[in-house]
Amino acid sequence: MFPNVTINHPSPHFGLVLDCADPDRLAEFWATALGYVNVGAAGVYVALYPREGNGPKLLLQRVTDPKTTKNRMHLDIEVPDIQTEADRLTGLGAQRQSDTTCSEHGSTWILMADPEGNEFCICDNGSPGGGTTS
User: Has residue 81 been placed in a domain?
Assistant: First the structure.
């Protein structure tokens, strides 16, 4: 389906598909945000794969129906410093969905949205100092 992509997983492996209005535009955001490579488009899809080969593929699928409610599933981007990462992703076009951080069970996160409004979180995964401002 996509050029130069070979799948050699000996066991089941998962990928993610994100519905969106403009997959080419979101590909720029998500490839940079995740350190992925845009391997190209096929029909209504744009495929992103991890630069180092570790992690799920992310397909961005063009759909005509607009996003109307909260996503039932979202991505968590886990980093040691959530404030710095939130600032970096805001510079790429993401938007904070709240001025405050959330905390539960030892983890702290910031609720964000990509340029089309798809929610995701930047999480410290319980890392000490992850929710602090640098």
Answer: yes
Residue 2: inside a domain: no
Residue 28, burial from CB neighbour count under 10 angstroms (0-12, 13-18, 19+): middle
**Number of neighbours of residue 118 by Cβ within 10 angstroms:** 20
Length of the chain: 134
Residues 57-81 pLDDT 10s: 999 999 999 888 888 889 999 999 9
User: Would you say residue 132 lies in a domain?
Assistant: no
What pTM was computed for the model? 0.82
Torsion angles phi and psi, residue 86, rounded to 5: -60, -40
* 59 half-sphere exposure, CB direction, 13 A CA radius: 14
**What's residue 5's pLDDT?**
53
How many C-beta atoms surround the C-beta of residue 9 within 10 A? 7
